[in-house]
Known about the structure:
Elements: E1 7-15, E2 23-28, H1 40-51, E3 56-60, H2 70-77, H3 83-103, E4 111-114, H4 129-137, E5 145-154, E6 157-166, H5 175-183, E7 193-196, E8 202-213, E9 216-227, H6 241-244, E10 256-264, E11 271-279
Parallel strand pairs: 1-5, 2-3, 3-4, 6-7, 7-9
Antiparallel strand pairs: 2-10, 5-6, 8-9, 10-11
Helix pairs in contact: 3-4
Amino acid sequence: xxxxxxxxxxxxxxxxxxxxxxxxxxxxxxxxxxxxxxxxxxxxxxxxxxxxxxxxxxxxxxxxxxxxxxxxxxxxxxxxxxxxxxxxxxxxxxxxxxxxxxxxxxxxxxxxxxxxxxxxxxxxxxxxxxxxxxxxxxxxxxxxxxxxxxxxxxxxxxxxxxxxxxxxxxxxxxxxxxxxxxxxxxxxxxxxxxxxxxxxxxxxxxxxxxxxxxxxxxxxxxxxxxxxxxxxxxxxxxxxxxxxxxxxxxxxxxxxxxxxxxxxxxxxxxxxxxxxxxxx
Length: 280
């Protein structure tokens, strides 16, 4: 059985056709695709937009479907189900997974990888539905947390940009608390972009860090991001934990990270770097 606590390291190469033109990284997740409260129209609208986006790459943040939570998977594991019942569950898991794969098939080759969330199915073989998606889309299974190096290649020049991502933890009521949890990731790893999903909030905050290169003072931008959701909180006559706890509704959708390879020729230097911006 594949553990739901795997950490991975991954390298993904992005060819740069022309400097000073943006390349987009689109994290997406917490879709809960077949849940009654999933905003299917918003999800399909996002897919239509993403399908036509040139120079875009994608990163899955977990919870693609609304299958079993950790406690539910644990209960199913010890439920002593009949073989026929387990086969029925497998068929349901595979049918839904195939539908999801078909919807995001256009991302093939531009999908950095898929993180595991806390909602997924586990087949009799021990494979998770997220692993099944990765196999069918020929992309990296990232586990629940991953350190990713994006390697931008322009001719003979290369520039690395690092992402530290986790499906997410915490359920802060306020936006500041949500981003604070992401900022805590910076105490674990040195990266350029820190990403979390899970709490369904959507937001991004740029920060700067100073560092020394030999004796020269340098400054680099880092980005903290919560990557959004497609699960509605308030729908008339539909049960919802958001409504029960009187939580705030979240702005649905994704954040869009713009990565622009640039060349700095000031003061006799010839530096290549990637400028980071984000819209929500």
